[in-house]
């Protein structure tokens, strides 16, 4: 029953506030019914409470290792982690966080492995590679749910130029609440930043569960999977000798894919394009163009949008604003 206390709205104080709570509760219920996609579901479950306190490599003192770039972080990660010091790295800080965790070279190999298999499986195994399994055409990054006070950490990413070149960053929820208003421009949760954090290990086994669940192991070389499994490091920022410093509110170019997954008869495929994913206006424009292109190509065959790089809510809004028809 809404309102939750069972008091009629007309008898409540602050009716605007009561109506707002009703709308929010209905929205939450709708989201539960709709449910997240496979990747978002796994990421939410696996990343919402990480990392465990026992895995945090508590620094021995307040000394900071200044790392020049995200690439250098991964190149020297074993040496850096063994020193048990705070680490500072600059880059593009974004709410689009890494789904695949590890050195960029490992993710590059995974990308190649997967792309090599797409056409092969599409020809021989109808339906082809499920669009929602596209680890390299958009699932290199994921936006994990909405901020929640029930979670200890919020999950972000630190990048250098391209989404494969990334460091997972976990931000203490209370610390983020204190500083976020002064960090970001309006609702654009991306910027150029200097992150000073503690190194920790992250449990990235959910990625391999995902690969096994959808029978993707044959698509990747074992050496690629081993490389990813051995490098599950991240940075923790909790405000205790750690911090986020804004260098520039307008983020630089971050190369990434946007993609839409389709079902056409018994086939599944995805249409994709790449752009600066931290440019909100450009992302919305290119998503609209991509959907228009899909509609032009497949409207006579009948199609369904079954997965996307972004939350369903945003895609639904773009479809409506563009006045596009999508077959049931």
Number of strands: 12
Any idea what the radius of gyration is? Answer: 21 Å
What is the rounded distance between the termini?
32 Å
**Helix coverage percent of residues?**
25-40%
Instruction: Specify the overall morphology.
Output: globular
Order of helices and strands: HHEHHEEHEEEHEHHEEEEHEH
Mean pLDDT over the residues:
76
The secondary-structure class comes to alpha+beta
Q: Provide the β-strand percentage band.
A: 25-35%
How many structurally independent domains? 2
- Helices, by number, come to 10
| Low-confidence runs of at least 5 consecutive residues | none
- Strands of the biggest beta sheet: in what spatial order? 2-5-6-8-7
Major β-sheet, in short?
5 strands, mixed, barrel
Would you write up a description of this structure?
The longest helix is centred in the middle third of the chain and has 21 residues, at 104-124. The two termini are 32 Å apart. The protein contains ten helices and twelve strands. The mean pLDDT is 76. By secondary structure, the chain is an alpha+beta fold. It has helices at residues 15-34, 38-47, 70-75, 77-82, 104-124, 173-183, 205-213, 222-229, 280-298, 312-322; strands spanning 64-66, 86-94, 97-98, 141-142, 153-160, 162-172, 190-201, 233-237, 243-248, 255-264, 267-276, 304-308. Helices cover 37% and strands 25% of the residues. It folds into two domains: 36-131 and 140-251, no CATH class; 253-328, no CATH class. The protein has a five-stranded mixed β-barrel. It has a three-stranded antiparallel β-sheet with strand order 11-10-12, with helices on one face. A two-stranded antiparallel ribbon has the order 3-4.
């Amino acid at each position: 029953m809404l309102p939750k206390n069972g008091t009629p709205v007309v008898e409540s104080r602050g009716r605007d506030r009561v109506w707002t709570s009703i709308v929010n509760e209905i929205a939450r219920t709708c989201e539960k019914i709709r449910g997240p996609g496979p990747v978002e579901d796994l990421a939410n479950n696996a990343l919402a409470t990480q990392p465990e306190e026992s895995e945090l490599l508590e620094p021995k003192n307040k000394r900071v290792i200044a790392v020049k770039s995200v690439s250098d972080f991964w190149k020297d990660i074993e040496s850096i982690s063994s020193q048990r010091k705070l680490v500072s790295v600059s880059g593009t800080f974004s709410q689009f966080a890494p789904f695949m965790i590890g050195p960029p070279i490992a993710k590059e190999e995974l990308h190649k492995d997967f792309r090599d298999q797409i056409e092969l499986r599409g020809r021989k195994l109808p339906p082809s590679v499920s669009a929602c399994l596209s680890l390299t055409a958009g699932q290199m990054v994921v936006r994990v749910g909405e901020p929640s006070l029930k979670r200890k950490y919020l999950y972000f990413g630190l990048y250098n130029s391209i989404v494969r070149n990334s460091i997972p960053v976990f931000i203490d929820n209370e610390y983020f609440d204190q500083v976020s208003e002064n960090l970001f421009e309006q609702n654009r949760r991306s910027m150029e930043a200097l992150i000073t954090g503690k190194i920790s290990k992250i449990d990235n086994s959910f990625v391999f569960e995902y690969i096994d669940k959808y029978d993707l192991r044959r698509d990747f070389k074992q050496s690629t999977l081993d490389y990813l499994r051995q490098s599950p490091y991240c940075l923790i920022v909790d405000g205790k000798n750690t911090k986020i410093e804004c260098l520039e509110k307008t983020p630089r170019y971050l190369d990434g894919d946007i993609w839409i997954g389709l079902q056409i008869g018994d086939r599944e495929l995805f249409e994709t394009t790449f752009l600066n994913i931290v440019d909100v206006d450009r992302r919305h424009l290119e998503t609209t163009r991509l959907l228009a292109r899909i509609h032009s190509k497949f409207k006579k065959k009948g199609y369904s949008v079954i997965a996307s790089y972004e939350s369903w809510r945003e895609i639904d809004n773009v479809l409506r604003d563009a006045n596009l028809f999508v077959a049931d």
